[in-house]
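Q: A reviewer asked whether we had any structural model of the full assembly, not just the individual parts. We don't, so I'm hoping you can provide one. Inputs are below.
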Amino acid sequence: MSDLRRLGRYLLKFRLSLIVAVVSAVLASFFLGGAIGLIPDLVGALSESAVSVEQSGDAGRIADDRAPRETAAGPLGEVVDSLNERITEAWVPVRAWLLERGFVRVPLAIVFLYLLKGIFAFASVYSFRRVGLRAVVDLRSELYAKSLAQSDEFFRRYSTAEMLSRILSDVARLQRILGADIGQALQSVPIVIVLLGYSFYSAFEFAGVCMIAVPIFVFTAGRFGRRVRKASHRSQERSAEITSLVEETLMARRVVHAFGAVGQETRRFDQALRRMLHQDLKVARATAATPPVMEVLGAFLAGSLIVYAGLLIAAGRVDRANVFAVILALFVVFTHVRKLATLYTSVQQALASACRVFEILDEPVKVDDRPGALKIAGIKDGFEIRRVSFSYGRGPVLDDVSLTVRAGEVHALVGPSGSGKSTLAMLLPRFHDPTRGEVLLDGIDLREISLESLRAHIGLVTQEVHLFDDTIAANIAYGCPSADIDAIREAARAAHAEEFIDILPQGFDTRLGERGGQLSMGQRQRIAIARAFLKDAPILILDEPTSALDAASERAVQEALEALLVGRTAIVIAHRLFTVTRADRIHVLEAGRIIESGSHEDLLAAGRTYARLHALQSFGS
Ligand code: ADP
Ligand code: MG
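A: Here is a predicted structure for the entire assembly that you could use as a starting point for your response.
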């Protein structure tokens, strides 16, 4: 299906509003046509009035048709009577004047028609914008839901910045075009048709010759439009450049300060600003030049046409009043044709954006629920990784890995950086699915279990802690919005976090700011552990939770982790972690294969890789 038709489907969801918009636009154009159609009458009335004003000294004669009034009684009645008389005296000439003069009635009718046209134009523009805005809400929400559902594999192909630009800029552009530009076209098309019809009907030859002006007008308008568009496109790119520059340098401000690079960064920013200014000035020039150029051109064309009209009138081939109305009608037609001329490029832009949006919507969600996926409640036997291989696309990262973790056991993964430990652990919450082999929970392939219920059973603490710009309480209760403050406090206490939270100015209600900026690494990690306590999932994955910490915070965090592990089935990845030595079983990974497995004592006794790593007081990372 073409993108255009697909885009149309989003609009067609709001059929009723669309019908209102179209019908109102057509009605509005007929009322406009009617108003312009009255102009010959106005011209006629004006010429007559010049004669009739001179004649009408005695306007009172029309007042005689009024019925005789009943006289009110008493002295008050007399006052009322005299007042009435005065009003009548003043009113009669006005009334006569109104009734007699076409040059009053015709403008009144024109005002009335314009009023109707205005009401329907409003209804049309508003209805169509409403359709556009609602369609865009649907589209954006679909896009967001789709993006969030995607697994890691997707985000390796589409960066966050890329997604931001599609969800925000592309959709915004679609909104502008669907709501405003196409709405404008909806207005313009019937106006052009009605007024052209009128023009040809009342002065065929004259209107025909006037059509010569259309291509000249459209061409010139198109030239300017293209220039504005090109420059504004480049300016958009420059502005994106500036955004990412600001983000980058502000995030890295410590580095900037440490290397004394403030001046250098400021200069870099100034240069980017100047590049944008250059494009913006181009836009400004083209935009400022458009109206005067179009006006001069319009005046020239109008002048030529008036001369031509004069010749036609002199030759008696056309009525003077009609030509006047047709010139006016054609002026309106030209302004609308000019608006329509930009429609083509708007639609092209819309299609470009639609294509980028649909590309995301069409991405299959690789890790997703099968129809009729099982819901699990608790774990009984544990899980098994059975002959799993995995690749991110190039070489294999996991190669025929098998391991079984019985319920209640803690298994540790050790091995050099890049050996595949994280990749292996992240198979459990299905952040990716194995390329070959299977992962089973209580004997059921994970792909048969509903993602939501699977992930509800897994707690995860990794090296990176993601905190939201919200209160500490809300951060701990992330994913458990119904948790009360007592439960949150208890989780924080278990995670050894309560002590530092309580001395913060607002305690649990302290807002963390962007990325939890005001907390130390160790404190942030303890918030993450509190989160895991609150979630209280039976399976736990710890992926180097202490490796970013200094020795002092590591101790505090480690105590919290030991408490968290109690009574859970876990996979622990760590270096320098006491927990590893006490794990039920330790697996040594190297280049995606398990080369050694056993308890701490067994592996030390075997005297191979593990023993060597341990002797170095490090299990790699
Ligand atoms: P470990 O946790 O043991 O340090 P990882 O599982 O993170 O190792 O990585 C194993 C291998 O997979 C590494 O060679 C790494 O470069 C690669 N890798 C990890 N994550 C990705 C990813 N998102 N995309 C592509 N390659 C990846
Ligand atoms: Mg890792």
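A: Points you may want to mention in the reply: Residues 152, 156, 392, 397, 415, 417-423 surround adenosine-5'-diphosphate (ligand 1) (CB under 6 Å). Confidence is low (pLDDT under 50) at residues 57-69.
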